[in-house]
Design a protein that fits this description.
- This protein has a domain of 278 residues: Beta-galactosidase, Chain A, domain 5.
- Helix content is 35%, strand content 24%.
- A hairpin with a 3-residue loop joins β13 and β14.
């Protein structure tokens, strides 16, 4: 996804400045991944100890029962084998995976539980997998209580004189739950976060490109699954406030953010061997789908406590939880310092318009496109006028260039005189396209990362976050660009260069936008269409001025 974003931004910038490039007037990080060792276990303090075993935990083949916990937001299934999470439905979202038939999103891969615990004894040489223990639940079915009432589910078990107690606490209206307990074995707990959430998107390749391990120490650090080689084992050095794994739209995190909670220690990541290969504009690429992740939690007295978030990467919800959890899904990739503020502003505006005006998101984009152009009208007016003046003097510039091509100094003076006489800026032709670019770039990332637009239909479009399956909206966008450019040439003297760009630019951008989110195409098409009257008024005024001169 990172390479596709880079390609898209580079191509859009090329389109914005290509006329001036082709026909120019001749004038003068923080803490990141720590050690890597696939053969030996680094010696860490107990708070950061990492066991010499894979973080991946499988359930025993012995019979086990599933305890179901249901709330308005989710339906969770916990196995009596170690109390691990074996099923997690997010009820407010539908799966688009072909085999799921639009059932609620289910985030746990079959046979690969989440929140599978191990106890570590001594310096990390001995481990006890809780999934080898058959625990007794306090109930077989749990319904999360009414608003404000906490609901608990406990598991207990013992082997000889060794006892384990595990308790989950749930609150209604929240994807966050508390895990606490006591283990009379080991001094450090290893919490397994699985080896990646189950993909529930129609475009699984795009989903896999977003798979990452995200940690928060002094700052938030995201490490894509693709950066881990198969079977490579890495230790991400803590202590951390939280450690999580993410897909494109969903997030699982272990949190140690309360004052009375010890910080999480090291995160252990084992590169997965399963990858998929697909073709793209950049050729064939291999994308990792697995990376087993576990995190250590010190428990010197045997007691432990941490929180869990398992739910959507919903920016506003995560922002309300604090601790920079909203950074788990940053906008902009490597351009984040520039794109993130604009993207967050755009997201908040779109959601506010949707909630307050009670408009479908498609109509919100239509209104937003018009509002952006209206706000930029004065600046766009000056930019368009400058662009038109530049086109008008293009023949005169060509004459000067031919006349003084062997005298650079004279050419420079004559060009500057021409600019001054006709009030022309040499970069005026770029400005009409550059002015709306920050919002356009921000929307590119918004539609690539914001769950609010996932699966949202509009007219014939089944999903604003995915490409138009019929390619109607990108074609409309390209035609709107062509009409906008054509209207801008009314009354202009014939110019082969301008005529060539008239056809090339709309065709080029249409091809580029074919596989972009249909919501992005909708916004850009509306923005162009709303600019046509402004361009027409400028052209008509130029014709009137020419008539007065004659």
């Amino acid at each position: 996804m990172e390479r596709r974003v880079i390609l898209a931004i580079v191509l859009m910038l090329i389109v914005a400045v290509l006329p001036s490039i082709l026909f120019p007037p001749k004038k003068p990080a923080g803490r990141t991944v720590g050690r890597s060792d696939s053969t030996a276990t680094p010696e860490l303090s107990p708070a950061r100890a990492a066991p010499p075993v894979s973080p991946t935990v499988r359930l025993s083949d012995a019979p086990a029962e599933t305890v179901w916990v249901t709330s308005p937001l989710y339906r969770l299934g916990f196995s009596t084998r170690g109390g691990a999470l074996v099923h997690a439905e997010v009820l407010g979202y539908r799966s688009f995976a072909p085999a799921d038939s639009r059932r609620p999103v289910q985030l746990v891969r079959e046979g690969e539980p989440l929140l599978a615990h191990r106890s570590i004894s001594g310096p990390g040489t001995d481990t006890t997998a809780w999934t080898d223990w058959n625990l007794t639940p306090s109930a077989t079915r749990v319904q999360v209580g009414p608003e404000g009432r906490e609901t608990t589910l406990t598991f207990t078990g013992e082997h000889g004189s060794t006892r384990i107690a595990l308790e989950y606490r749930f609150l209604p209206g929240d994807y966050r739950l508390t895990v606490q307990g006591r283990a009379e074995v080991g001094s450090t707990l290893l919490v397994g976060l699985g080896d990646g959430l189950r993909s529930v998107e129609a475009d699984s390749m795009d989903d896999f490109r977003h798979y990452a391990v995200v940690t928060k120490a002094a700052k938030t650090q995201s490490t894509a699954f693709q950066s881990f080689k198969p079977d490579e084992r890495k230790i991400l050095d803590g202590p951390f406030e939280w450690v999580g794994v993410k897909s494109k739209y969903f997030f699982l995190a272990a949190l140690a953010v309360e004052e009375n909670q010890p910080r999480l220690g090291a995160a252990v990541v084992q590169g997965g061997a399963r990858t998929v290969t697909a073709s793209s504009l950049l050729g064939r690429s291999t994308v990792a789908t697995r990376a087993a992740v576990a995190v250590t939690l010190p428990a010197p007295t045997g007691e432990f406590r941490y929180d869990v978030y398992l739910g959507p990467l919903e920016y506003r919800r995560l922002a309300q939880l604090g601790h920079d959890l909203d950074d788990a899904n940053p906008y902009g990739g490597f351009l984040r310092p520039i794109i993130q503020p604009v993207s967050v502003l755009v997201v908040n505006i779109l959601i506010w318009m949707h909630d307050r005006l009670r408009l479908a998101y498609g109509w919100v984009l239509v209104v937003f496109g018009i509002l952006v152009r209206a706000l930029l009208w004065p600046l766009n007016q000056k930019a368009m006028e400058s662009s038109l003046r530049m086109q008008a003097v293009a023949p005169l510039m060509k004459q000067i260039q031919d006349r003084h091509k062997n005298d650079p100094e004279r050419l420079q003076r004559e060009m500057m005189r021409l600019y001054k006489e006709h009030n022309v800026s040499p970069f005026g032709g770029c400005l009409p396209m550059l002015l709306p670019m920050p919002v356009l770039f921000a929307l590119f990332f918004v539609f690539a990362n914001t769950i609010a637009f996932r699966g949202v239909p509009f007219l014939w479009l089944p999903d604003l976050s995915r490409p138009d399956p019929f390619y109607i909206i990108p074609i409309v966008m390209g035609l709107s660009m062509f009409v906008l450019s054509k209207v801008g040439q009314i009354g202009m003297p014939p110019n082969p260069q301008t005529k060539m760009m008239l056809y090339f630019m709309p065709a080029f951008l249409t091809l580029l936008f074919l596989n972009f989110a249909s919501g992005l195409n909708l916004y850009y098409a509306v923005s162009n269409i709303f600019s046509i009257p402004q361009q027409y008024l400028i052209a008509m005024r130029r014709l009137r001025d020419q008539g007065k001169k004659t």
